[in-house]
Amino acid sequence: MQPLLRFLRPVFALLALSFLGACSSENEDPTPPPLAPGMSWTVDGGLMTTTTLQAQRSGNNLSIAGTVNPNGPTSSFLMLSMPAAVGTYTFSLTTDASGTYSTRTNSGTEVYYAGATGLGTVTGTGSIVVTALTATSTSGTFAFTAINPATGTAKSITSGKFTVGL
Fold this sequence. Notes:
Keywords: Signal. With 166 residues, the chain is mostly beta strands. The protein has one domain (3-25, 37-165). It is 8% helix and 55% strand. The protein contains one helix and 13 strands. The strands form two sheets. Strands 1-3-2-13-12-11-7 form a seven-stranded antiparallel sheet, with no helix packed on it. Strands 4-5-6-8-9-10 form a six-stranded antiparallel sheet, covered by helices on one side.
């Protein structure tokens, strides 16, 4: 895959799905609940639980994207990309794993990225753990710190869990 395309793939996917979004809600216990099919995580102390979820398996790669409250005035989007195999994938130059998080408000969209840029560097930090993978579903956990390339600001995504059909 061309280096620039690898870096831009999550950004283009995010923009294509920008109509999907989520708003955070404050919760005294920000730990996401166990999931039936769905995805949840915490960001800035707020629990996010998806209202829309999609997954795609393409060859040896797996992508999962989720949103909450896609038609709200404030929304968020999270996408994970990883190898389609059970294992732990720490974001690095040698692992094809990444996380993208974005927020959308009336004033615009902010995008945060963690993973190999395809330009010989790694942005942010994090990992995805695929705990189960069958022909019809996958589940696991994730946590990462993503960087907004335009501003240099970071978002910490913690306590992430996913269970999704393929």
